[in-house]
């Protein structure tokens, strides 16, 4: 299984980075080789979430200091991280040539991993959408708040209309009332599918978990600290669901390069 999974959220603060980090930890425990790419180019938080202090980050690769392979930090025997800098001026938005460079270099690394997880920055700016479009499967993380799910709608609209992506996996977080949240999300999914001609499947519904804050304070993955809690068990189910998803034909890194990028432009 060689698969690139994109994780997007229109609104910040929905817990997306914690979800990606813990899914990576759980897959690594199953001895799957996982690379997490911190796609928040200027405000990277994944290293902090995983409790590692990488020597190198993506900006070092783009500045020509080291290769992408050298920038990858080992977290556990099966889990690796490509970190982003935090607060480095000039990397708020990657240029076209910088995105192309990362596309090609990550593509070259695919055979080294079973799963590549791309944790995008929040928002719907063009750099996020273009990088998200290069994945095989697309996970959208939202809450039941209108500002959150309407931003999620905007991401799916852009990806479906610009890149013809039709299948989206939805994860709902921070639910205070499961039954009420479920009604809101079901209506949202119906409206989205009717208006965008896409298939949206909810694959995970997470109640508010106060111990997540504790794991962040300790800078240790939640799944390691609290393996027995319902939140972790739900994460395990989501991982299994994503494993079973087919690699979407017509998307994915190699297809994206072939159709949208002139290789000569990066030389």
Instruction: Give the CA-CA distance, first to last residue.
Output: 31 Å
Largest sheet strand order: 3-4-2-5-1-6-7-8
- Main pleated-sheet profile: 8 strands, mixed
Measured as a percent range, the helix fraction is: 40-55%
Poorly predicted ranges (pLDDT <50, ≥5 residues)?
261-267
The total tally of domains equals 1
Overall average pLDDT: 87
> Per CATH, which architecture?
3-Layer(aba) Sandwich
- What letter string, H or E per element, gives the SSE order? EHEHHHEEHEHEHEHEHHHH
How large is the radius of gyration?
Answer: 17 Å
Shape assignment? globular
CATH topology: Rossmann fold
Please name the fourth-level CATH homologous superfamily: P-loop containing nucleotide triphosphate hydrolases
Task: Please give the count of helices.
Answer: 12
How many E-type strands? 8
Share of residues in strands: 15-25%
Structural class: alpha/beta
Q: Which CATH class is shown?
A: Alpha Beta
């Amino acid at each position: 299984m060689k698969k690139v999974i994109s994780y997007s959220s229109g609104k910040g603060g929905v817990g997306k980075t914690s979800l990606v980090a813990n899914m990576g930890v759980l897959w690594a425990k199953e001895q799957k080789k996982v690379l997490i790419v911190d796609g928040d180019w200027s405000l990277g938080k994944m290293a902090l979430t995983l409790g590692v202090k990488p020597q190198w980050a993506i900006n070092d690769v783009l500045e020509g200091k080291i290769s992408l392979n050298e920038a990858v930090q080992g977290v556990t025997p099966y889990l690796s991280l490509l970190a982003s800098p935090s607060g480095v001026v000039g990397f708020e938005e990657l240029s076209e040539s910088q995105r192309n460079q990362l596309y090609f270099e990550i593509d070259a690394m695919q055979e080294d991993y079973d799963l590549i997880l791309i944790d995008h920055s929040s928002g719907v700016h063009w750099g996020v959408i273009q990088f998200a479009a290069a994945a095989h499967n697309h996970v959208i993380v939202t809450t039941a708040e209108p500002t959150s799910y309407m931003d999620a709608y905007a991401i799916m609209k852009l990806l479906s209309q610009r890149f013809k992506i039709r299948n989206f996996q939805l994860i709902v977080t921070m639910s205070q009332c499961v039954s009420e949240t479920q009604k809101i999300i079901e209506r949202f999914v119906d409206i989205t599918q009717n208006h965008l001609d896409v298939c949206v499947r909810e694959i995970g519904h997470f109640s508010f978990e106060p111990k997540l804050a504790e794991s962040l304070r300790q800078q240790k993955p939640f799944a390691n600290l609290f393996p027995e809690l319902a939140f972790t068990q739900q994460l395990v189910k989501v991982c299994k669901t994503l494993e079973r998803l087919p690699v979407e034909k017509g998307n994915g890194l190699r297809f994206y390069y072939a159709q949208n990028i002139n290789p000569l432009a990066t030389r």
